[in-house]
């Protein structure tokens, strides 16, 4: 009966669309859902595919419809007028929302939404060819009380070119694509048992899920207005609801797993036994057992990873500052506890702040991961100048103590100095990936925001744990040497790892900005050193430190703001003298090689990733690996994530990772295999053995 009702409603609405304009007084003004046609690139390359977006903005109180509107409504229909050599694919909708009106279930969009269409340019199209695109779009706009059929013709003019995509357009389309359902990639199964239909969907037992709902795109199959029950049964999710009509073939649809998140799936007829633990609306309001288990695992991994970060090369130099403060504290128990708490607070707050900023930027469409701040050369230069100042201070060139204001935060005594030392340690610790961290950070990105922030806080707590223990356990503190004359020598020794850190930052700046950036960074560091030497000379004479401090700060700020942002000089090792030549990673190149049945080893690295560089030196760039890969015809693709790259970020996210390193082996005719984060030559040569 409902199918007949929907057919009659659709016929009436289509008839309304066919009436002349004089018969549609509601269509004389602006549409209730404003529409615009947006191209990802104004100059698509011949042989490439770009996305076109229908950017739809409903007025307040109005809504549009998904491809399957539910009990009532209509989706969008398109009539294209395309030039020769241009084709379009099927319209792809974002994950919809549910809306019940008068007992009818509707699948709608109540806020701005953007269905996407893939536009393919034939390789035969010559560069410079003008490509006028025109499409007549019809849709239904409704409120809770009325519905209005709306129509418009949208146009855009493209020119075949180099396929360039602006940063703003890339970010905008990345945001829209994030709201599309992702392919499930596994086979689902359904069984109709009388009036009940059960759908078994492969889904990890530890996978987060919030407010699940199954939107069927196949009709008939599932009753739209019937309630849906969800059960977790190991690594599968079972949907149980009321069947509708006679379903004989596959059942397609979208499983909502969170706000604007979904999985596109096709279920085949089979056997689905009832069972599992129910997760209903009430349970969705509180963290489910699976979410709590995932949170506990992620939190444990973050704590252990943070603890192990203390022995990583990128954190050790900063810990020398804390070691000096501990030596100064001596046996003062109250001071030791105060400093330990302040140090912990600095680390935890910075980790939570970085994690919150990461989540906010990703929610806004940015394709970034952990350590995102070190992909900006200006941050690298700021750290270089800060580390330079700390290094010369430890070496005895000047003293912070005589400067009453504007002094280095990390050099202050007491709780303030401990807090900012912890903040700096957390900030520079992000390039390091300790064991247990990768899974924890990946899980944080799919957990609810409060739980994710708790994981980031756990990482900071793990990093601070050794000094927290020293501050609160007298037995550990008694093992520390007593303050004495040796501290002056110890302080100068600790300047050595800080100077090495400055050298590493100079190298990293060069990788991101080329030789120009290196010269700029060295000049800025040398100027700062000269001003600090002047400061030390004035201090030795008992004069004020304000005079050299002002130009020192001004020159540092100017150097950071005016840093040339040219592309880095680093590139994949394609030269003839490279041990293992590589090619630049791109999804198009990967697809081309896979279609040609070529074995591919894809690895993703960054110059600030210590683990990445260790693997490259110990396993990837080795003669044995190169010989084995050459004999087997393996093509090596290198994804350099030193500077932000949205394509690499999207690929990492698709593999369930939030950062590097990542190593993936593609064997012809087989599913891709993600390799361990620590590689050996035997691990790689065994791939082709």
Describe the protein's architecture and organization.
The protein has 689 residues and is an alpha+beta fold. It folds into four domains: 2-163, Thiol:disulfide interchange protein DsbD, N-terminal domain (Immunoglobulin-like); 188-285, Sandwich (Immunoglobulin-like); 289-561, no CATH class; 583-688, Glutaredoxin, CATH 3.40.30.10. The chain is 42% helix and 21% strand. The strands form five sheets. Strands 11, 12, 13, 14, 15, 16, 17, 18 and 19 form a nine-stranded mixed beta sheet that branches. β17 and β18 (261-269) form a beta hairpin. α4 (289-309) crosses α10, α5 (316-329) packs across α13 and α6 packs antiparallel against α10. Residues 1-28, 281-290, 401-411 and 567-576 have low confidence and may be disordered.
Report the mean per-residue pLDDT as an integer. Answer: 77
Helix content: 40-55%
Largest sheet: 9 strands, mixed
β-sheet strand percentage: 15-25%
Radius of gyration over all CA atoms, rounded: 30 Å
Which structural class best describes the helix and strand composition?
alpha+beta
Subcellular location: Cell membrane
Pfam families: DsbD_N, DsbD_TM, Thioredoxin_7
Signal peptide: 1-23
Transmembrane segments: 291-319, 340-359, 379-398, 419-446, 452-473, 493-510, 516-535, 547-567
């Amino acid at each position: 009966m409902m199918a007949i009702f929907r057919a009659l409603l659709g016929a009436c609405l289509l008839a309304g669309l066919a009436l002349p304009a004089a018969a549609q007084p509601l269509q004389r003004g602006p549409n209730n859902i404003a529409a615009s046609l947006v191209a990802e690139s104004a100059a698509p390359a011949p042989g490439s595919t770009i996305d076109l977006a229908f950017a739809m903005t409903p007025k307040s109180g109005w809504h549009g419809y998904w491809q399957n509107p539910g009990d009532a409504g209509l989706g969008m229909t398109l009539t294209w007028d395309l030039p020769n050599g241009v084709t379009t694919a099927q319209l792809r909708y974002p994950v919809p929302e549910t809306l019940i009106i008068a007992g009818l279930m509707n699948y709608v969009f109540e806020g701005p939404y953007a269905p996407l269409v893939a536009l393919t340019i034939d390789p035969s199209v010559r560069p410079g060819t003008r490509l006028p695109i025109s499409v007549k779009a019809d849709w239904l706009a409704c409120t809770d009380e009325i519905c209005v059929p709306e129509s418009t013709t949208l146009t855009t003019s493209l020119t075949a070119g180099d396929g360039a995509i602006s940063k703003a357009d890339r970010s905008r389309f990345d945001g829209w694509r994030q709201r599309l359902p992702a392919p499930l990639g596994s086979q689902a199964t359904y069984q109709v048992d009388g009036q009940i239909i059960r759908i078994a969907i492969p889904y990890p037992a530890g996978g987060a899920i919030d407010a699940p709902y199954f939107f069927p795109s196949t009709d008939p199959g599932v009753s739209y207005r019937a309630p849906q029950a969800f059960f977790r049964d190991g690594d599968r999710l079972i949907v149980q609801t009321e069947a509708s009509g006679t379903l004989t073939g596959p059942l397609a649809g979208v499983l909502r797993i969170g706000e604007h998140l979904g999985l596109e799936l096709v279920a085949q007829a089979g056997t689905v036994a009832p069972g599992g633990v129910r997760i209903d609306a009430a349970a969705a309001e509180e963290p489910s057992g699976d979410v709590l288990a995932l949170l506990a695992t992620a939190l444990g991994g973050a704590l252990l990873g943070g603890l192990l970060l203390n022995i990583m090369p990128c954190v050790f130099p900063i810990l020398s500052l804390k070691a000096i403060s501990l030596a100064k504290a001596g046996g003062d128990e109250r001071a030791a506890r105060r400093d330990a708490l302040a140090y912990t607070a600095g680390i935890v707050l910075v980790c939570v702040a970085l994690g919150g900023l990461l989540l906010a930027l990703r929610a806004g469409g940015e394709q970034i991961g952990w350590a995102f701040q070190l992909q900006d050369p200006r941050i690298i230069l700021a750290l270089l100048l800060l580390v330079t100042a700390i290094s010369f201070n430890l070496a005895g060139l000047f003293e912070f103590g005589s400067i009453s204001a504007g002094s280095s935060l990390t050099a202050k005594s007491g709780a303030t100095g401990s807090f900012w030392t912890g903040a700096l340690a957390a900030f520079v610790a992000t390039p390091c990936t300790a064991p247990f961290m990768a899974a924890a950070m990946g899980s944080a990105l799919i957990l609810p925001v409060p739980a994710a922030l708790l994981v980031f806080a756990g990482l900071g707590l793990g990093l601070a744990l050794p000094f927290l223990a020293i501050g609160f356990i007298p037995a550990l503190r008694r093992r520390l040497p007593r303050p004495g004359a040796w501290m002056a020598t110890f302080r100068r020794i600790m300047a050595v790892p800080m100077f090495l850190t400055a050298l590493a930052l100079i190298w990293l700046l060069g990788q991101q900005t080329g030789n120009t950036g290196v010269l700029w960074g060295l000049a800025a560091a040398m100027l700062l050193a000269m001003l600090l030497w002047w400061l030390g000379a004035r201090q030795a004479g008992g004069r004020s430190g304000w005079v050299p401090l002002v130009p020192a700060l001004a020159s540092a700020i100017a150097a950071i703001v005016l840093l040339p942002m040219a592309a880095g000089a680093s590139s994949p090792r394609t030269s003839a003298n490279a041990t293992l030549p590589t090619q630049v990673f791109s999804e198009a190149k990967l697809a081309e090689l896979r279609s040609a049945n070529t074995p591919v080893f894809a690895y993703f690295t960054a110059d600030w990733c210590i683990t990445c560089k260790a693997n490259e030196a110990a396993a990837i760039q080795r003669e044995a690996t190169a010989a084995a890969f050459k004999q087997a015809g393996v093509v090596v693709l290198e994804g350099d994530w030193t500077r932000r790259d949205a394509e690499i970020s999207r690929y990492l996210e698709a593999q369930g990772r939030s950062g590097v390193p990542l190593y993936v082996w593609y064997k012809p005719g087989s599913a891709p295999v993600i390799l361990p984060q620590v590689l050996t030559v035997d691990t790689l040569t065994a791939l082709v053995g």
